[in-house]
Specification:
Helices cover 26% and strands 21% of the residues of chain A. By secondary structure, chain A is an alpha+beta fold. In chain A, helix 1 packs across helix 3 (131-147), helix 3 crosses helix 7 (332-354) and helix 5 packs antiparallel against helix 7. Chain A is globular and about 65 Å long.
Chain lengths: 382, 382, 382, 382
């Protein structure tokens, strides 16, 4: 009810504040037998951690994740997997000057009114530091998805006005990590980095767009009427700090098309039914159709800036605020692994949910040859 | 788990198919004592029903809603409220020709693979006919919200390339129902209607954008970290058939702004804390801040068109399909009450969820005078 | 949140009041492809319906169930299955005399205070008439379980002081329906019937115990730590009207045993691991162990009696109440199908939940020969 | 779905194994503003911890609880409260001899089959060590309940055949902690202690019964039809390790009564409506009626015993097992705080759920004088 859990079967519950003792997550429903690759989890954490490059916040955190439960001899046991990071470089005194002030476009005001009190240090629970827990959980989901042939990628496609013109099909996902900004169009990436540096010099911030791509998704994921796959993806990424918009497939651009242009025509190739175009973004009727799932996510410029701003204090009186805390000039590069994590969590959850859909749960993807063998093998299973 | 329920406290579960016996909804968690205005519910149904004007589908359904339970002497009793409509004008034979064919950009293919079988008549469960149940439930939510001073409006702001230039603040919400297209900018509305008629003449379809506006929302609704108010709104509207994108506040346009431009500066007016701009769209940190909540929703052109299209059948063989069923040339006018309904459901749910947030639940909005009186009255409440 | 839904995957939501328009249920999560045997569902309804014999209430209801959705050509489609019964013989005027009075040990008082108003006709929502919806849903669950080799039986083992001495293993489940009282120990059954008739003559009521037995349950159902199989069974049957206690396996009697007596010793028979005794009641650590699941449920005497009783009205003034409404002298015979239904719902739900537990979901029960073949067949499943 | 969470609004999720790194809990939904009395939480932990007396297991654990999040300046912030204990005295080598053996009446076998692998050290997740997390969470619930005038007590009423004859009304709850066995009938307590010592000398174990009592519960808690207050209590306590039965009010004994004897007659005292007897156990129609809630819980003798027992190993071969691990001769004394914790969690959850039931949430308990004042004060709240 309080909204700190996500997912139905592969369920994550996060806890922790920016300047509290620790931030962590409990993953309940991770399938027993999953190989827990601790190094991979830590590697994902490194992609999100502050201080990783010169275009992100300089708060220094190792974000070394500790696995507390649910793993035995390297494998998930089916019991809850708790993972945690102790906060280290939390300069809480940085925030004492805003204890009774509401920073513009931050959550100070709304938290104060909602809860009647708030942990003002670094935004407390509203800080994006919470997302480290999502990345840890998402890493587990990614391992699970990989074993099911599903890959999840996200990259920065736009910073301010600077956007790559290339569709995702023309970009090499292996280059996402090639630059600090995580745009695989390397030419544009350089410009983005320069832009972010310039913005930082002004003490200002800038927004952008992240593109998400899921490949290898089996047909059949998504639960109409309400838990449509894209609806759950929308909620998942919209719950990331600073996110302002979500579109999949043709998205907002599709509104100007006619149905006759927009419809994705089915055809058969290599014994599989595919669509010639993919305005549907890999999802039809809320259910994955086997094509690539692709979507775009808008992020606003982060609210913490250096120049003085007017605001009010708890008494409603006008005050001036200056941004002393360390912060990101552009949240996009660090948001990439978070978007991937949230996407992976949705897919892992729906992959498990799909197991309950039919009378007999079988491997979803079977080619014709496999079907034949299965038919013969069937007596084994009754 | 199967995804036919929505909401945590004010929870709706819908059932029914396009050409089955009935479509309905069970609302569990409607507060006891709510006045059940059956006429208002029916009026909302009329805004969604087919055949309501000459720019929507001509399937004729009265959609007379029957209240089966949960109401006694005109008031909600706190027990589940079941509401139902029997299907009338269901010409199932219209669909026999597509029993084994997959219509492009419909859910035929994905349902068949997901469930192993499907009710092909009119799209079965994937039909937007399911949304009548949402509108009925949404009407209850609207009554509840109205008693809490909250209004919910949606209107068509764009059809194809035709868009109103006026922001919602300059439009009169009372004019939404003035035209069949439900755009309160009457000049643009006329053009939209002409465009839709032209599209229909071609046997084609067209998409568009719906603007949503919530006014009078108290401060404090929304449950971080995952059930942020805008994340739940995103999921709610994205679960509506044909929806492709969601943005709130500055949305996708905000990505090009600097933080110094984008931040909404707080000030005090009439003893209330407000923001000068509203790029936040009334939601900060996932929690309503008392300003208007505003968002935009993209709808694709509906997939059913008259001209012949190529596709495949269940065997994967190429077939030709022509659209015989009655359908909407543009889903936007009928989607307006659905967007309102889903918005109202989210707000009603969060309004009730908010009651559990603090040690003592008090009326959220109190001016200073009321606070004084409350303080004196307090001994009564121990 | 409002508690009218049960189950996680195989989820049922009931609605309706004793004297409202209709009583019904929505089953969301019934696996697609399940054969919907409408005759069997109706047969289960007949076991619960009033007026079925001369030892139950004489309210006459056919309880003809109408299937409204989710079924196509005799099979579940994976969409919600709504089922409904219109109330017929609802003599609401029978109840006008208690509109402002609180009947002793009924829910009149608690509903009035909880909700601030109540539908007093026949107990409204608190009436056991709600359980017809459970029986309809339970019938679906039973069909599903049967296809998985699982049988669910319940029978009356005690009425007042009259109890069968025979353990369930010595009784023939086929004889449960042989008498109106549903005790398969026919000698005791006759005495029970006489007792109930005598109690009815006094205008009084009497309680009793129902024994539940599940056979053929696969190993592995139940989700520690909280959703242990017996914990979910306890909640399921305790939620039935008039239920006062639940015990499984050795139950309350086991408290006087030593561990060395109580422990169930494992041994191998026919390639399967079994236990020599079954004090565990088929459940160890909250998970089914493949042995019979057996439990006992206590029901109090129903509260509606003919003799005058003192009570209070809404103003707190003393009043006299006489039971005019038709009622059961002993709820046990009609509670048998309800206990079976709730048991079946728990098992169906956990059977589906179990599918998500491991990396690969396989048929749980395999003998050694099957395992060998499976190992060879495995390449098919990558 | 995996069953490691409990509660709807006041929701707890536990994690950790007997011999893993840590055991902990995340409480999501604890009302903001609650005073977090860390000393009280630790005191509750001490009542459950091993090694606390000479009639419990001698495993030595301080069980010093660390609060990781959700608390700021001594108060709950409304964010998740994570609490954790690092395991200390975990002699995992004690268990290597049972790595491939199934201990009788333990969860070794069912875990192995359910999950395909298991953490065999001390029972892993199936160990009652998990319950320390429940006690920590329950302590928060107790603080919340106390502020609402609700007290929760449990005590040992029976060990083996030794039972106190006194009803709870004649016992002093302050004496529960007076003896190591937690039976407030001090004479019987001494006999119980002697019995447990004798049982321990035999290397054996013994079961018993715990009585639970809730006082000061407001009228109106419980959510029909499925989440009846006693149904949720039943599930809550039945989910505790070794629990075999639950009854409330008249329980199993009530089945032999006539309705005319069993009905609780209402009367008015001090302006409050009460019942003369309390066979209902404080709950009618699944909703609290303001009288004491009382129930009894059966615990089996724990399965770990010293004498050699026969069993099977994973290959199904007969093996001999001897109990080397430290264990409790009788689980009852340490189960008392666990029963209290689970009871408190149910009540705290329902107290918050009740806030959403009506159009306007008001303090539930008002005497006539308060009602009058409230009516005059009402204009303040519109």
């Amino acid at each position: 009810m309080a909204g700190n859990s996500f997912g139905q079967i592969f369920k994550v519950s996060t806890f922790g504040e920016s300047h509290g003792k620790a931030v962590g997550v409990v993953v309940d429903g991770c399938p027993a037998g999953l190989d827990i690759d601790a190094a991979f989890i830590q590697q994902e954490m490194a992609r999100r951690r502050p201080g990783q490059s010169n275009i992100v916040t300089q708060r220094q955190e190792e974000d070394a994740i500790e696995i507390l439960s649910g793993v035995f001899e390297g494998k998930a046991t089916g019991s809850p997997i708790a993972m945690m990071v102790y906060n280290e470089d939390a300069r809480s005194k940085d925030y004492s000057h805003i204890a009774d002030k509401y920073r513009p476009s931050h959550a100070d005001f709304t938290y104060q009114i909602k809860y009647g009190l708030r942990d003002y240090r670094g935004g407390g629970r509203s800080s994006a530091r919470e997302t480290l827990a999502r990345v840890a959980a998402g890493a587990l989901a990614k391992i699970f998805l990989k074993q099911n042939g599903i890959s999840v990628h996200a990259y920065v496609s736009q910073v301010g006005h600077l956007a790559t013109e290339k569709p995702y099909q023309l970009l090499d996902m292996q280059l996402i990590e090639a630059t600090a900004v995580r745009c695989p169009d390397l030419e544009v990436a350089e410009q983005m980095i320069e832009l972010i540096k310039a913005v930082r010099k002004d003490g200002d911030t800038i927004g952008g767009i992240i593109q998400g791509v899921v490949q290898g998704c089996p047909i059949g994921l998504g639960e109409p009427a309400f838990d449509k796959l894209h609806a759950d993806l929308a909620k998942a990424v919209m719950s990331i700090n600073a996110c302002k918009g979500f579109e999949f497939g043709s998205g907002f651009a599709g509104v100007t098309m006619r149905g006759s242009q927009h419809n994705d025509i089915f055809y058969t190739e290599d014994g599989k039914i595919k669509t010639k175009t993919n305005h549907s973004g890999g999802i039809q009727g809320g259910i994955s159709n086997g094509m690539d799932i692709h979507f775009r996510v808008a992020f606003k410029p982060v609210a913490t800036i250096v120049p003085a701003q007017f605001s009010v204090n708890e008494a409603g009186e006008e005050v001036e605020i200056t941004g002393k805390g360390r912060h990101d000039p552009c949240v996009l590069p660090r948001a990439v692994p978070i978007v991937e994590a949230m996407t992976a969590l949705v897919l892992a959850d729906h992959l498990l949910r799909q197991r309950a859909t039919k009378m007999e749960h079988k491997k979803i993807y079977l080619n014709l040859f496999e079907r034949c063998l299965l038919r013969r093998a069937k007596p084994l299973y009754r």
